[in-house]
């Protein structure tokens, strides 16, 4: 019974933890412009993150080594440092976006400008990182983040033409006024939002934090294989809500108000309240994960002691680095830059950096010195290689498309 | 110093295969995590220091084979990435004598706090963390 509860808890937190500000904004933007015609990208992205999160979790559980240690060992200091630089910058952008997201959600709830909420959000995120145990942090934000299910509920309340939605999803086409370039640009953005590298850094380091052993692998696999696809469903529900309400009305998503508009229209104030709670929890959880990830990557590259299972005094560089990251993110927000814009760019840059993260994981998951008899099977390797090709294409196409389409404008 | 005539590598007789475990410095030492005797991460192996002749120095017949004298860490990493050689006095050494085992991690037989390699960690622990409440307690 207790084991069953553990499994259920893991799945629920994986669902709640899957969606972050990047998924929220990108899916709403895409839904409002392209309907469900990019839903297939979410499916591909979710399958990819399942594959590689599972792989990095297995590497961490079997060898006790988190992803970034492995990246440096395998790629050497030069490529490792380039990778660290890229990952760290994207992490910083994502931290900025998530803290902005918390503040924007609180603005929506209170009417007080998000700028005033930023210091509050910073303090709350840091306090949790400084003082709260890893498992509690994960479970609470994940469970409360489940309130985002209200997107799916709202979709039913909106009584959409299901046939038309399915038609958009299964026979994708670019609608009249949108350009093909913008379509593919947002395809890459959605892919980047679903497969953000920080999730893998966080997942593998989390496995070490929680002391996973080989026998825990079954449970982790269930969490990933059930939780992430259900999280992906939530992403598609966000896009569908936007497709039903915003697309016909010609409303474009530039702030969080448009993201929540369909839910408010469908379910009124109560639904809106639940949604805002969900957004705060989801962005808060993601702010914790990205901040920790930036600490993890730095500490693992340089070999510092890291982890929330150590008291801060026993991982001093790790904790000081995270404080600096949080302050840097807030400094960026203090310039008055639009957090939604930061989010949109962060998911595309994530897509660009994807190959750097996923190639070393695939290599090490095949190394018997680390993995013993738990090396990748043939099917996993074939899938991994197919994904590497997709990732590489997306990564190479991202910048030319960004320039050609004026960032999807 | 007149430059010694280089011997083409192909003309050197291969060394006899040593007995016991063979480690490839590139593959098994460089960039590996070092853990102390309690399993606490110390640093990463940023470089390896060998005893014996300097580059371009003439090697007398029958000279002792070079041995690893220390694992290096710290700023030396920069020279591996960007080139150059730091002065010997600036190297942070972990003497090879404290290495207890080489596996997917390099295990040391001493405590992290006894090594120069962890001075930044100790400095922050004593000068920054104590100024913030709660830093010395387990998270809960």
Description:
The complex is a heterodimer of chains A (409) and B (140). Chain A has helices at residues 2-18, 21-34, 39-63, 67-110, 114-131, 134-145, 150-157, 162-170, 180-194, 197-209, 217-249, 256-302, 316-334, 339-364, 368-371, 378-405. With 409 residues, chain A is mostly helical. Chain A has one domain: Amino acid/polyamine transporter I (Up-down Bundle), CATH 1.20.1740. In chain A, α1 (2-18) crosses α6 (134-145). The mean pLDDT of chain A is 90. Chain B has 140 residues and is of the alpha+beta class. Chain B has one domain: SH3 type barrels, CATH 2.30.30.240. Chain B contains 3 helices and 7 strands; from the N terminus they run αββββαβββα. Chain B has helices spanning 25-29, 76-82, 119-127, and strands at residues 33-35, 41-44, 47-50, 68-73, 92-95, 99-102, 106-108. The mean pLDDT of chain B is 84.
